[in-house]
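In this supplementary section we document a worked example of the pipeline. Step one takes a protein sequence of length 279 as its only input; no multiple sequence alignment statistics are reported here. Step two produces a three-dimensional model, which step three serialises into structure tokens for compact storage. The input and output of this example are shown verbatim.
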Amino acid sequence: MNAEEGHNPHEMGLSPPEPPGAVHDLGAAAIDLFLGARELYSVFVRTLYYVVRGKREKGAVVEQMFLIGNKSLFFVTITMGFIGMILLYQSGLQAKRVVPDFSMLGATYLELLVRDLAASLGALMLATRVGAGIAAEIGSMVVTEQVDALRMCSADPIDFLLVPRFLASMVMTTVLIVWAGVVAFAAGAATALVAFDVPLRTFCSMQLIDWGDLSTGLAKCVAYGAAIPIVSGYCGLSTFGGSEGVGWATTRAVVNSSLAIIILNAIISTASLMIFGAK
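The serialised model returned by step three reads:
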């Protein structure tokens, strides 16, 4: 008997190993998710540390505020204008079927905008533009070894690259979302006047807005503004594989930033419900 026959599992009464099944794949996915969440948390903590103790280049935050805010203004304005028209028109049609009274249409629409819609829809749009831009820029620096050069110069990439974008995003996301809410409300008012003959004086009512709505909306603005650069920066810093890796990092940044916005929306809305109660 030769060596090959002696080690044949069929000759020895042993069955060959079975291929990995669904449980193996699920476990591997769970481990990858846990490791990714831990690394993302590490990036977030280091970013907060360097916000307080870091040394930033002069004018870096202002430059990022221009790139994030001014460059996104036209996109946000046009998109939220059309979204505001569509939302108001569909809401008016449904209200007309139930109660043909539009006296509270504007007040209800404004409450939804302030409490959730303006922040969530505006942040999802910024995730597609700002998040993709941050991931592509940082990912390109990774594959061209510019990030390694920063480390060799004793400069932490988190401090040098991510902190200015983090600070600029929190400020400009809040500003852009407030502007997006104004545009959506103005577009809704024009639609209500044309489609349902609702006077502007009747539509522009703030009687349903309270401090709970304002606090919830502001908390979402700040949270979304912090989440987009953190998630996108993490995707950019974890880039590998050349130009193809940059493309994958950009896609991951958009998807993960949008998912983070949805999760934060659920968390903040639940906390708001527990603190301020249902309306």
